[in-house]
Please model this.
Amino acid sequence: LFAIVFLWQMPHFLAIAWMHRDDYARAGMPLLPVIEPDGRSTGRQAVLYAAATLPVSLLPSAVGLAGPRYLAAALVLGAIVLWLAFEFAATRSHASARRLFFATIIYLPLLWLVLVLDHVQDPRNIGALARAALAAGVPAIATPVRRAAPVGATAFKAAADGPLAGILEYV
Model:
């Protein structure tokens, strides 16, 4: 997981550095887009790190930490970031850097959310869903009543008084 974050940060911060290269130059900060203003090296580095992130993000499935849902999501999300890194490298425009930046912002939380949700075996298990929602920072969850597992007053009280307070609402 560390390797995913380590590799992910480079396309993310290279996109930021490209969008704000004039500010960094005025501040005297020697970032890559300031040192090499044509952007070819910046684009190449963004592609290389995005390309390295893709196979590394598949490792949780390879070592048994995640299943096929995570594998599919990691492939799709990684391919999107890699495509946008190629677009940025080709055009070196502010707009393409912005798209890459926002894609990297969305990529990491979605990848972690899928990794967490990949461990929910029974979607009717309100406790597992609540823990996954809590881990992902989701403020609330809802399940259809006709397919929900019954939740007794004791279970609801324990959840409402514990670390899941505010996540569960009994309606």
The chain has a mean pLDDT of 81. DSSP finds eight helices and no strands in the chain.
